[in-house]
C-alpha cells in the first residue's frame, strides 16, 4: 500500500480538502461551504473525499488541519498536524510555483502578503486585528448596491472612470461611497472604484514597505474577483497569476506539512459515523472566568481549550468535565 | 503640585501607600518600593491584571481611552479603601525631546476626577524637567507632602535610586545574555506596561516560549545608550519611551531574527512610531500587533504562530 496524506482547510466561509500521494500529486479534492457548521462541513467533506479515494491502493498515514476551525476539526479528525493557514498557504503555493516571489492573499476576514526567496518564505505581513479591505467588506458593499458579489468583477471591467474612494480605512471608504452614490456616480464606476480601493488599501496596509517582485500569485476568495485582479495588475505594473486551484492551496500545504511531520497515524474514515458535540463552559475558578470549549466524541471529552491557566485544564477521557 | 486632602493628618501608624500594578509600575517598581520603605511606609500592590479588572476599568474610562488606561483604572478601583494613599505619578518630560505620552501628564487628574465620589486620597509626584522639576525634586516634594522633612525624603530618594540602578543593571545583563541564545530570537518592541501586564502581554511571551522561540524585551536595555542610538534613526522623535525602544532596535537589529511590535489600542505615540519602525527597518521580518480588549486569542495566536513559522522556514528548521 502506498502512503497518502489528508489536508483539510476549514475557513469561515468554505471548507476545502485534498488527499495527496507522497509525490504531492492530488488524488482527491473537494470544496464545499462551511455554512456556520465547521464540524458538519468537515464530516460532509470526508464523505465526499472518500468517494474519490482508492482505499485498496493507498492508506492515509498523516492528517493536517488548517483554517480558523483547525483546532476544532483537528480534534475531531485526530489530526497529526494543526497549523495556521498562512504557513499552509506559503508551503502549498511554493510547492506548485517554485519560482514565486510574492504571494498576495485576500480572504473573508484577513489579508496577507508573503515574500518568497528561493522557494522559502522570508517575510510576511498580515492585517492587524481589523478586517478592513477584505472580502467581507466587498460583500457588504455588494449588498448595499444590490449586486451579487460574484458579478462584481465583471461589472467593474465595464467602467471607464472608476470613482475615487477613500482607501485608508473601510469605514471612511463606506461613508465616502454613500456620498458618491447620492452625488450620482454610476454603479459600475463605484464598483470599479471599490475594487481599486481594496487594492490601494491592501498595498498601503499589509503591502507597506514590502518590495513586490514578480512572479506574483494572488489567492484567497477575493482573487476570484476579476475587477480586483485587474486593479492589482494596474497598480503593480506586472502580471498576476491566479491559479484555478488557488482555493486548495491551504489544504494542499497542510497535507504536505502533515506528510513531512514526524507524527503518523492512520486515518479512519469511520469518523463520519461518530457523534461530535461541543460545549462552552465558563470556568469561574478565578476572576478571569475563561470560556472553555469542550469537544466530545460520543459523549466522551476528547479535547478542550480556552483556559488561561491550569485551574481550567480538563482531562480528556472524562465524561463530565467541570460544571 | 495640586494635592487633594493634603492637609489631612497623618495617622500615628505609618501610612499605607497603594501601588497600582499597571502603567509605570513595571518601570518604577524598585524605585517606588525602595523610596516608601526607606520612609518607613508600608506599600500594597494591586493583584496582577485579570479580566474582571479590565471590565471594571473599561466601565470607568471614556471610550477613547487606551486599553492601558482602562486597565490602570481597574487597578485603582481594586485598591480603593485598602490604603491611606494611592500613588499616581504625573510625569511630563525629562527634558527636550524627552516627553512622556500626555496620558502620564493627565493621569493624576483623570484618576482624581473618576474617583471623586470616594474618600480615597491620591498622591502624585510631578516630574517636569523643562520647568526645572527633575525626578529628585519631585520625590522630595512628595516626601514633604506626606509629612516627612526634606532631608529624610532626599535620603530616601537617593537610596531608592541606588537600588533602582543596581536592579536595572542586573535586569539588562540578564536580557543581554538572551541575544547569545542559539534558538530563534524575536525582539518584542512594546511599552513595559503592555508587555509586563499579566493579562495582555504575558500570554504573548508564554506563547512564543511554547513555540521554542526566545522572546527578548526591547525595553530592557541600557537606556542611556539606547537614547543615543535612537538619534541615528530619528533626531526629532519626542517620546522618551519610544526613543528607548527605537534605540534598542538599532542596537540589536543584527542579533535577532525578527521584531514583534506590540501596542495597546489606540496608542497615539505607537501608531506613529511603529509606522516609522516598519518603514525604517526594512529587511527585518516585522509583525505588528495591536491589542484590544478582545476575548478571542485565536487571531493573536494565528499571527504569532505564522510569524514564528516564517522565521523557522527561513532558517530551515520547519
TrEMBL record, chain A:
<keyword id="KW-0411">Iron-sulfur</keyword>
<dbReference type="InterPro" id="IPR002731">
    <property type="entry name" value="ATPase_BadF"/>
</dbReference>
<dbReference type="InterPro" id="IPR043129">
    <property type="entry name" value="ATPase_NBD"/>
</dbReference>
<protein>
    <submittedName>
        <fullName>2-hydroxyglutaryl-CoA dehydratase</fullName>
    </submittedName>
</protein>
<dbReference type="GO" id="GO:0046872">
    <property type="term" value="F:metal ion binding"/>
</dbReference>
<keyword id="KW-0408">Iron</keyword>
<feature type="domain" description="ATPase BadF/BadG/BcrA/BcrD type">
    <location>
        <begin position="6"/>
        <end position="258"/>
    </location>
</feature>
<keyword id="KW-0479">Metal-binding</keyword>
<dbReference type="GO" id="GO:0051536">
    <property type="term" value="F:iron-sulfur cluster binding"/>
</dbReference>
<dbReference type="InterPro" id="IPR008275">
    <property type="entry name" value="CoA_E_activase_dom"/>
</dbReference>
<dbReference type="InterPro" id="IPR051805">
    <property type="entry name" value="Dehydratase_Activator_Redct"/>
</dbReference>
<dbReference type="Pfam" id="PF01869">
    <property type="entry name" value="BcrAD_BadFG"/>
</dbReference>
Amino acid at each position: 500500500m502506498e502512503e497518502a496524506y489528508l489536508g483539510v482547510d476549514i475557513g469561515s466561509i468554505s471548507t476545502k480538502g485534498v488527499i495527496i500521494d507522497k509525490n504531492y500529486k492530488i488524488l482527491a479534492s473537494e470544496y464545499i461551504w462551511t455554512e456556520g457548521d465547521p464540524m458538519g462541513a468537515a464530516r460532509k467533506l470526508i464523505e465526499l473525499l472518500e468517494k474519490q479515494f482508492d482505499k485498496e491502493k493507498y492508506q492515509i498515514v498523516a492528517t493536517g488541519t488548517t483554517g480558523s476551525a483547525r483546532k476544532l476539526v483537528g480534534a475531531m479528525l485526530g489530526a497529526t498536524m494543526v497549523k495556521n493557514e498562512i504557513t499552509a498557504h506559503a508551503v502549498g503555493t511554493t510547492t506548485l510555483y517554485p519560482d514565486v516571489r510574492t504571494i498576495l492573499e485576500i480572504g473573508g476576514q484577513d489579508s496577507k502578503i508573503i515574500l518568497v526567496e528561493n522557494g522559502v518564505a522570508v517575510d510576511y505581513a498580515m492585517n492587524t486585528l481589523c478586517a478592513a479591505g477584505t472580502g467581507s467588506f466587498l460583500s457588504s458593499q455588494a449588498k448595499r448596491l444590490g449586486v451579487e458579489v460574484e458579478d462584481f468583477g465583471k461589472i467593474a471591467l465595464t467602467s471607464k472612470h472608476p470613482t475615487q474612494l477613500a482607501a485608508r480605512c473601510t469605514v471612511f471608504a463606506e461613508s465616502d461611497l454613500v456620498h458618491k452614490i447620492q452625488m450620482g456616480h454610476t454603479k459600475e464606476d463605484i464598483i470599479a472604484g471599490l475594487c481599486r480601493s481594496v487594492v490601494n488599501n491592501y498595498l498601503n496596509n499589509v503591502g507597506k514597505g514590502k518590495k513586490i517582485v514578480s512572479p506574483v500569485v494572488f489567492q484567497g476568495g477575493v482573487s476570484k474577483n476579476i475587477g480586483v485582479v485587474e486593479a492589482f495588475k494596474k497598480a503593480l505594473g506586472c502580471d498576476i497569476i491566479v491559479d484555478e486551484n488557488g482555493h486548495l492551496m491551504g489544504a494542499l500545504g497542510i497535507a504536505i506539512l502533515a506528510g513531512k511531520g514526524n507524527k503518523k497515524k492512520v486515518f479512519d474514515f469511520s469518523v463520519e459515523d461518530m457523534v461530535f458535540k461541543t460545549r462552552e463552559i465558563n470556568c469561574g475558578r478565578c476572576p478571569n472566568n475563561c470560556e472553555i470549549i469542550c469537544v466530545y466524541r460520543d459523549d466522551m471529552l476528547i479535547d478542550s481549550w480556552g483556559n488561561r491557566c491550569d485551574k481550567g485544564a480538563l482531562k480528556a477521557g472524562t465524561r463530565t468535565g467541570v460544571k | 503640585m495640586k494635592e487633594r486632602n493634603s492637609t489631612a493628618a497623618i495617622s500615628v501608624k505609618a501610612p499605607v501607600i497603594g501601588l497600582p500594578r499597571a502603567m509605570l509600575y513595571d518601570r518604577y517598581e524598585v524605585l517606588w518600593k525602595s523610596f516608601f520603605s526607606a520612609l518607613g511606609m508600608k506599600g500594597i500592590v494591586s493583584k496582577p491584571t485579570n479580566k474582571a479588572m479590565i471590565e471594571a476599568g473599561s466601565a470607568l474610562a471614556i471610550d477613547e481611552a487606551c486599553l492601558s488606561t482602562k486597565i490602570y483604572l481597574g487597578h485603582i478601583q481594586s485598591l480603593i479603601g485598602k490604603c491611606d494613599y494611592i500613588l499616581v505619578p504625573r510625569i511630563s518630560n525629562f527634558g527636550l525631546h524627552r516627553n512622556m505620552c500626555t496620558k502620564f501628564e493627565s493621569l493624576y487628574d483623570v484618576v482624581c476626577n473618576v474617583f471623586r465620589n470616594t474618600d480615597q486620597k491620591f498622591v502624585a509626584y510631578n516630574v517636569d524637567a523643562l520647568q526645572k522639576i527633575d525626578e529628585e525634586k519631585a520625590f522630595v516634594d512628595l516626601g514633604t507632602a506626606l509629612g516627612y522633612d526634606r532631608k529624610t525624603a532626599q535620603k530616601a530618594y537617593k537610596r531608592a535610586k541606588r537600588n533602582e540602578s543596581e536592579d536595572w543593571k542586573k535586569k539588562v545583563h540578564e536580557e543581554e545574555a538572551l541575544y547569545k541564545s542559539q534558538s530563534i530570537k524575536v525582539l518584542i518592541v512594546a511599552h513595559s506596561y503592555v508587555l509586563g501586564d499579566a493579562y495582555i502581554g504575558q500570554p504573548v511571551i508564554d506563547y512564543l516560549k511554547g513555540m521554542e522561540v526566545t522572546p527578548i524585551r526591547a525595553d530592557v536595555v541600557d537606556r542611556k545608550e539606547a537614547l543615543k542610538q535612537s538619534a541615528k534613526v530619528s533626531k526629532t522623535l519626542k517620546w522618551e519611551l519610544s526613543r528607548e525602544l527605537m534605540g534598542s532596535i538599532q542596537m540589536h537589529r543584527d542579533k535577532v531574527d525578527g521584531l514583534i511590535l506590540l501596542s495597546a489600542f489606540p496608542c497615539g505615540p505607537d501608531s506613529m512610531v511603529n509606522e516609522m519602525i516598519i518603514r525604517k527597518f526594512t529587511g527585518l521580518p516585522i509583525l505588528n500587533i495591536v491589542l484590544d480588549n478582545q476575548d478571542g486569542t485565536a487571531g493573536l495566536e494565528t499571527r504569532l504562530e505564522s510569524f514564528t513559522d516564517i522565521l523557522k522556514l527561513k532558517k530551515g528548521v520547519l
